[in-house]
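Risk register update: the risk of archive-format incompatibility is retired. Evidence:
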Amino acid sequence: MAISMQGSWTVAVKSKSAAFAQRFIIEGADSGNGTYAGQVATPPVPVTGAYWSIRIQNNPGTGFIDSDDRIKFPVSVAGQYRFDIESNDAGADEDFNDLILTCSMPQGLGEFLIYGNLSYYSGGCWYNPCFRDWLVIESAAALAEALRYPAVRVPIEKLYPQRVIGPPHPPGPGPDPGPFVPLVLPIRQQTALPARLAQEFKMTAAPAAEAGPAKKAKADSAAGESTMATPVRSFAISSPAALAVEIDRIGIGDLVDILRPLCFTGPLAGFPLRFQEYDRTSAELAGGPYTGTGGRESLGQCVTDRNGNYIFRFSRDLGDFLQEVFQDTAAGENVFVTAFPDVIAQLLDSLAPGGVSYESAPYWNIPNLKRIDLCVPASAVGRPVAGCQGGRVYQQIGFIRVGIPAVSFDPEGRVTCTDNTAPYIPQTSCAAWGGNLRFSACFLDANKASAVTQYTIRHRHRVGMGWSGWEFYQEPLSLQRVGFVAPQQVGPFDRNLQVVAPGPLVPAKAYDNIELNFTWAASDWFTKAGVSSGGGSPAYAPTPGPVQFQIQGYDAAGLQVPGKNDLITLYVDNVSPLLNIASVGMGAQTGGDCALFHLSGEPVPAVLTVKFRAVQNEGFLGSYGLSVRKGNIPPPFPIAVSSGGFITATPPYVNASPCHQLFGTRPPDEPLAVGDFVTTNIVPAAGNWLDLGQPFCTFVVNVSCTKRVTDGTQPGEYGFGPVQYFLGIEQ
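Archived output:
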């Protein structure tokens, strides 16, 4: 795949150890673009430009093709930063020494180089395992899990009280709004944010070899044309205003040690990253916790290599340093030394809200050369982390693979997934599809080649006992191209294609096939559609029901490629359950806005009559239940049914064919229901509502349910409710 580059570099051939002819191609630069022979005798190439890319190619005798490549992490040598790009050609060996390039740049006061590895994590480590000095929480699900542990809940409540009592994550499939702003808890220090650092530089004469375009780099203008700044050491500068945080660090550390072995990780190859510089808010400057609401500046982006490794360069000029001094310096910090920038990393995904699927916590005070290994929650990846798996054209919907024994569809498209090959794959049981669906597909053959240059997707929905007419899927699709800041459109485009074979070319809505195109981020190679299942024009599912999606591949002439088509049926249902409590009464006493019931004159135990409903008309309830809480006593308060309908229910039988269904408080599941509501009489499981000597207490009647639905990336059941009815009971 192409190696993304930023800024000015000199590219030189370090070595060649191959029988095949080698070459490298520089594209997208302001200067230095071209194709160069892969020979040690090739003169070094000075390259300038904000964003550009390098590809290495080899000729096995049939023409030049792209080589596999990987980067080596940079080192500091004689006033320069250098790193190697190693490649493996089409030969039988896999030693990655066929052609090796060395990229070099001068060190300088304003030149920063970040490098590291990008991976995903899942399993028991709901916290980010890449941070050692802080416990970093990066999703709503992880926050909910963290709040279960007192050692973690206490500092969260102290540092982030609004995050504890804030609005809950909405039910149903879909990513966290945002991305989720991380919570940062200190583990190995006493303050909410780390101490600021500074760096000392030595001014030396610039090496003669660096004269020319590289000398004109942005940072060198701050140091002078004939000198360069070389970092010597870093040191802390005090921040007496920092907020001291008293938390159970030993308890948190023990918890981390217990959960770490349960963490699963893996590399993310060909994924785009963006970096931002972060300026602290006034509250953060005073020592408060990280909020993510401070000022930001986009520094640029890069793409990881085949191993998930990346190198990213950015520059700071004198004005940027002065801004740090005047706008991001707390009381007591030394304004006469250079402060390091604070950097945030973002995982880019054009199908995610705002184009960002993940945002890291800040990496504070980074020096000019800094390794940052990034760990991303698997739920934020949202797309395959491996290439084609063989079999059918459709490969995955989200993380759920199609065409394998562990994943089955009933005739109407309800999905059951028991695939446990990775902990982030959602487990489902006869679930509907909802939310935003990422379709991944593969047109490659056994030789990792394909004649498919473009494709269409058509859809139709169930109408009565038949189907509607075929319509073209035509939601805009943009993916990440190496060397481009913004995602680039791959469709839909108006083309003339052979939609029906044999037959003439007709107008169609087509998308470009970018599989194995090394000028595109490899993470997007197999993304074919981002289907907003609740919308579409025309609508995919005007009412809940089966929808068919047919994908078809075409060659450059617009003709169908035989065998490169597939059809999948999905039961789409984005409708929330009907959930409410109509009334609560006690004997002849009726409730109301301020319900108060008296036990005097009532039987022992007194009977509460509850009229409620929990209905999902397509049969996708996972369960429903009615419960009672008494006062501040930990729930639930034990109750029993004296007469009437069910207060809890789960599907009457569980199997994938035919799929089990649960409609809720309506026939056929609830024979006593009237208009989807059931009336049930409940009593305490033991004793009465009030204990002896207890004159009064408050109670809450709760009704909640779950729905079996997935977008392929998140769990197959979502909770709804509880809806609540508040009342008081007195003697």
